[in-house]
């Protein structure tokens, strides 16, 4: 098979080199975007008179039929033809002869690869955005049912303050919203057309880059051919955003793995999304969540790989860039797989109200509410902190809770200046349920504030 670039060579390419340099084994999935790009290019060539309208039409028809052939798995791929771009072009030439030989006019594989990858990344962004929205909807969807459940909030994995359970769900919704916004922002930079940058310098032919940009739905052609043909920043941005999505998924998975333990006992995962043990009959393991946590490493690794790949490359195109696709596709596939299973786990898990309630008054979750009660009665914050700290220490000694102390006991344990400020109303902030209900600030974890946020999110995601 003669190669598209064999003109100046006197020896055939070594077989080892062909196997070493091929990318068809991983870039065949660009076939659809490659054909989209080539059809737009052919149309522009005919509009500018570089080829005839008839030629453009037969190229478009042949490309469609080649696309169909690839979709059906009927194209035989070989490393001799390197990549998907040369496979499609050589099939076009086999079918159309000289007309097929005109398609690559005013274009190089360098801008073609970049155009394909940008079209692919743009679709990938839109796809992931939809999947992220489904995850957000799954969290919001269980908000009403869980609104009356008070759970501990933690810092340092130590019990801190009580919150309504959906405060957690909406915390994840916020994180994934930021990821969606980052993707939308990245999309703006993806959406500039490389096509017509050719190898690196542009072309002496009267091509119309604005027209191909328009035909492919790009917002504009990129302004510098040298820059855009060497640019893979957008893949670093894309995979870095996916790395954050992966980190957020992993945080969620880790939290629910903990909550699903006998030690916590907060959560029951759906049977269909857990697995058993080959030896221990009682086991029901959170393997899916563990894999979500584990797979985040691949996505984070991909972002790293791409950054190292582009660092120190002189402009413009270098063959190093061929490997960008491996990292990008792996990050994309991995995130898609995780986002596809997540909504069903989120919607199907059950909070174990009784277990949570039986221990919700452990751990002095109401201590901060008691301190704020004192502050409201004129006790300086630092004094209130000290006083409640002493009460907690006393309770630990007596093995009781703050709400078990009588008013007289509380008064006798606080400094003389604070004692007269405390009356029976103190019981209204003691106990986790009261402490959670006492939260009033915007964005806080009380049932009332969370209910407002839930209503907001229902509107935003409708
Ligand atoms: N398959 C290659 C890639 O994905 C295309 C190489 C094009 N350019 C070149 N000068 N060899 O990057």
List keywords for this structure.
single chain, 462 residues, mainly alpha, Fumarase C, Chain B, domain 1, Fumarase C, Chain A, domain 2, Ribonucleotide Reductase Protein R1, domain 1, 3 domains, two-stranded antiparallel ribbon, two-stranded parallel ribbon, 60% helix, elongated, binds arginine, Argininosuccinate lyase, Argininosuccinate_lyase, lyase, Fumarase/histidase_N
Tell me the name of the CATH homologous superfamily of the largest domain. Answer: Fumarase/aspartase (Central domain)
What is the level-2 CATH architecture name of the largest domain?
Up-down Bundle
H/E element sequence: HHHHHHHHEEHEHEHHEHHEHHHHHH
As for the number of domains, it is: 3
In what range is the share of β-strand residues? under 5%
Bound molecules: arginine
Low-confidence stretches: none
Q: What is the strand tally?
A: 6
- What is the helix fraction of residues, given as a range? 55-70%
Largest sheet: 2 strands, antiparallel
The mean pLDDT is 96
Q: What is the number of helical segments per DSSP (H or I, 4+ residues)?
A: 20
| CATH topology type of the largest domain | Fumarase C, Chain A, domain 2
Structural class comes to mainly alpha
């Amino acid at each position: 098979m003669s190669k598209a670039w064999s003109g100046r060579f006197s020896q055939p390419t070594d077989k080892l080199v062909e196997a070493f340099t091929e990318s068809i084994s991983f870039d065949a999935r660009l076939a659809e975007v490659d054909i989209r790009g080539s059809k737009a290019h052919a149309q522009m060539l005919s509009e500018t008179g570089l080829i005839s309208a008839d030629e453009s039409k037969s190229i478009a028809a042949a490309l469609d039929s080649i696309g169909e052939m690839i979709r059906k798995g009927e194209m035989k791929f070989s490393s001799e033809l390197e990549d998907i771009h040369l496979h499609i072009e050589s099939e076009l030439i086999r079918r159309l002869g000289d007309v097929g030989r005109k398609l690559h006019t005013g274009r190089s594989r360098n801008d073609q690869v970049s155009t394909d990858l940008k079209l692919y990344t743009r679709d990938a962004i839109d796809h992931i955005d939809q999947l992220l929205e489904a995850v957000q909807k799954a969290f919001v969807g269980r908000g009403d049912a869980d609104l009356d459940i008070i759970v501990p909030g933690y810092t340092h994995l130590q019990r801190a303050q009580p919150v309504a359970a959906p405060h957690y769900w909406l915390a994840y919704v916020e994180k994934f919203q930021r990821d969606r916004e980052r993707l939308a922002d990245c999309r703006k930079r993806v959406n500039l057309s490389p096509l017509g940058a050719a190898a690196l310098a542009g072309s002496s032919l009267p091509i119309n880059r604005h027209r191909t940009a328009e035909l492919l739905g790009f917002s504009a052609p990129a302004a510098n051919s040298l820059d855009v043909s060497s640019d893979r920043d957008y893949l670093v941005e894309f995979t870095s955003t996916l790395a954050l999505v992966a980190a957020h998924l992993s945080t969620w998975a880790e939290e629910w793995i903990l909550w699903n333990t006998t030690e916590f006992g907060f959560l029951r995962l759906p049977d269909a999304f857990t697995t058993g043990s080959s030896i221990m009959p009682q086991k029901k393991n959170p393997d899916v969540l563990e894999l979500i946590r584990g797979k985040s490493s691949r996505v984070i690794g991909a972002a790293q790989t791409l950054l190292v790949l582009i660092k120190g490359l002189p402009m413009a195109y270098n063959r190093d860039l061929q490997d960008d696709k491996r990292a990008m596709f792996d990050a994309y596939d991995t995130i898609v797989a995780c986002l596809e299973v997540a909504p069903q786990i989120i919607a199907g898990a059950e909070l174990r109200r009784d277990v949570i309630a039986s221990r919700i008054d452990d751990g002095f979750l109401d201590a901060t509410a008691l301190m704020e009660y004192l502050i409201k009665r004129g006790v300086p914050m630092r004094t209130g902190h000290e006083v409640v700290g002493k009460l907690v220490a006393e309770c630990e000694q007596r093995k009781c809770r703050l709400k078990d102390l009588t008013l007289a006991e509380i008064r006798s344990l606080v400094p003389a200046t604070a004692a007269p400020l405390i009356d029976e109303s103190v019981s209204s902030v003691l106990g986790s349920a009261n402490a959670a209900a006492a939260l009033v600030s915007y964005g806080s974890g009380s049932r009332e504030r969370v209910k407002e946020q839930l209503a907001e999110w229902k509107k935003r995601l409708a």
